[in-house]
Amino acid sequence: DAGVIQSPRHEVTEMGQEVTLRCKPISGHDYLFWYRQTMMRGLELLIYFNNNVPIDDSGMPEDRFSAKMPNASFSTLKIQPSEPRDSAVYFCASSLRTASRSETQYFGPGTRLLVL
Amino acid sequence: AQTVTQSQPEMSVQEAETVTLSCTYDTSESDYYLFWYKQPPSRQMILVIRQEAYKQQNATENRFSVNFQKAAKSFSLKISDSQLGDAAMYFCAYRELISNFGNEKLTFGTGTRLTIIP
User: Fold this and answer.
1) Cβ contact (<8 Å) for A43 and B91?
2) A39, A46, A101: best mutation site toward chain B, by most B Cβ within 10 Å?
3) What is the C-alpha separation between B29 and B3, in angstroms, rounded?
4) Alpha-carbon distance A69 to A34, whole Å?
5) How far apart are CA B28 and CA B25, in angstroms?
6) Shortest alpha-carbon distance between residue A23 and chain B (Å)
7) Which of B11, B66, B7, B64 is nearest to B33 (CA)?
8) Which chain A residues are within 8 Å of B42, Cβ to Cβ?
9) What mean pLDDT value characterizes chain A?
10) Count of CB atoms within 10 A of residue A2's CB?
11) Residue A16 burial by CB count (10 A; 0-12/13-18/19+): exposed, middle or buried?
């Protein structure tokens, strides 16, 4: 399996611009997660989906952030407008629920975002 | 709320030696999952090992093993025969056992940076 795929791997943009991060989960997985990693706050969950439906978006920092999952094989995280404090590594992860238990989350390689 | 604490920001070990990374957590749940993830300089998050709280036997994966002390809420990672490729940030993580659509959220510790001395 190709694993979780994220694009782009690196993104440099100017403050005020729109940024779109993309994720393709592992085929067959029914959960998808977006995390953000910064030095100050560590790893924090932004939002997660189950069967393409957002379940918990309480970690989304503010209205500038939005996430969608139009189908089982694709999700986007959008920041509009971007600000320097959004600079971070953004990870996508996916997992599969089997029977009554959910399995391990597998992470993508991350997108390193720098907002100037 | 669940919290995960890694009290060792940095650790170092001589190549081929054994090192133990500490993790404690706080929860009122009786069943849950615990994980150790490794993050090398490439920034990829890689699962190292996983433990289900209802299992009394400590998980092992080749050179990696855990010491799970449920009553003490402690979950340490032991790396035997350390190799240069083990150098990375190591994160301890907690997740509740799901029920229905349960809580899938992974709560991470702040990480321990492990250096391997040749």
Assistant:
1) yes
2) A101
3) 12
4) 11
5) 10
6) 14
7) B66
8) 109
9) 92
10) 7
11) exposed
Overall size of chain A counted in residues = 116
pLDDT, one tens digit per residue, over B44-93 is 899 999 998 888 899 999 999 999 999 999 999 999 999 999 999 999 99
Q: How far apart are CA A15 and CA A116, in angstroms?
A: 6
What sign does the CA torsion over A82, B44, B112, B13 have?
Answer: negative
Q: Is the CB of residue A69 less than 8 Å from the CB of residue A32?
A: yes
In a 3-state reduction of DSSP, which class is residue A17?
A: coil
Distance CA(A114)–CA(A111), nearest Å, equals: 10
Q: Do A104 and B47 touch (CB under 8 A)?
A: yes
Per-residue confidence at B38, pLDDT binned at 50, 70, 90? very high
β-bridge mates for residue A101, sequence order: A98
How far apart CA A91 and CA A105 sit, in angstroms, is 11
Cross-chain CB nearest to B108 (options A33, A42, A102): A42
Question: What residues of chain B lie within 8 A of the CB of A104, using their CB?
Answer: 35, 47, 50
A50 CB neighbours in chain B (<8 A) are 101, 104
B91 residue type, one letter: F
Examine the pLDDT at A15 and tell me if it is beyond 90.
yes
CB B25 within 8 A of CB B35: no
A91 to chain B, any CB pair closer than 8 A? The answer is: yes
CB contact under 8 A, B43 and A101: no
